[in-house]
From TrEMBL:
EC numbers on record: 3.1.1.31
Occurrences of domain Glucosamine/galactosamine-6-phosphate isomerase (ranges): 10-234
Descriptive protein name: 6-phosphogluconolactonase
A single BP term in Gene Ontology: carbohydrate metabolic process
Length: 255
């Protein structure tokens, strides 16, 4: 799996370069299959993404975008903990993606996490419309991931049994160590089948976990993301990478 680790001098330059990469990914996807499928994380990611996308929204063919969530908390869609609400407030409400192409968790199932995960897998199946038994997992054009200080990504937490899920596309947990406890998450097979996976992490608070994952190759959940046919990118800033000593870091000229 090819891997590129970028570091930028500021969140602003990171966001502008990320926008540029998404534009290239969008154009490549549209040339292949006339739609652009993206999975979004919650946390700090939507705000960083918004900084880049909303600076030049005219560059994108929003009517071709399909948005899913890499993970979601089982709460009503307008709840303060909802990743969908976070993404809407950050940028989704300000770009013309057709509502039918934005795929939140089913709000009627937030009290039934197993059913919510199954329903979300069906939402994915409808959009990806996989044909043929040989095709086991959807191939997202881009999956955008965050990473917590414990190394979790999506809602895949250290030492959790969900790390071993190798059949389902979407799983659920009721014991997330980070609140809220009940969530659904894309599984590793889906993340690792994506065409492009991009981690975004900024700030000095991410230094210790980046040292463990990038310098020391510890198999924390984020470190186990390993696209089978795709490319893995880390979009970091100077503050996050300041203490890395063993990792090759690309510092591109900034836009
Ligand atoms: O709980 C979650 O946390 C992670 C990391 O968040 P961050 O604020 O450290 O960026 C996030 O990627 C995930 O989607 C979210 O549910």
């Amino acid at each position: 799996m090819p891997r590129t680790v970028y570091a930028f001098p500021s969140t602003e330059t990171l966001a502008a370069n990320l926008r540029d990469q998404l534009l290239r990914a969008q154009d490549e996807a549209l040339a292949k299959h006339d739609r652009f499928t993206v999975a979004l994380s919650g946390g700090s990611l939507p705000q960083t993404l918004a900084q880049g996308l909303l600076a030049h929204p005219e560059s994108f063919q929003w009517d071709k975008w399909h948005i899913f969530y890499a993970d979601e908390r089982c709460v009503p869609l307008d709840h303060a903990d909802s990743n969908h609400r976070l993404a809407r407030e950050a940028f989704l409400d300000r770009v013309p993606i057709p509502t039918s192409q934005i795929h939140p968790i089913n709000p009627d199932l937030v009290d039934q996490p197993a059913a919510a995960a199954e329903d979300y897998q069906h939402q994915l199946m409808r959009v990806f419309a996989l044909k043929g038994a040989a095709v086991r997992f959807p191939v997202f054009d881009v999956i955008l991931l965050g990473m917590g200080p414990d190394g979790h990504t999506c809602s895949l937490f250290p030492n959790h049994p969900l790390l071993d899920e190798d059949e389902k596309w979407v799983s659920y947990l009721t014991d997330s160590p980070k609140p809220p406890p009940t969530r659904i998450t894309l599984t590793y097979p889906v993340v690792n089948h994506a065409h492009t996976v991009i981690f975004v992490a900024t700030g000095a608070s991410k230094q210790p976990v980046l040292e463990r994952i990038l310098d020391r190759n510890e198999p924390l959940p984020a470190g186990r993301v390993n696209p089978i046919h795709g490319h893995l990118y880390w979009y970091l800033d100077d503050a996050a990478t300041a203490t890395l000593t063993q990792t090759t870091i690309d510092r591109p000229s900034v836009i």
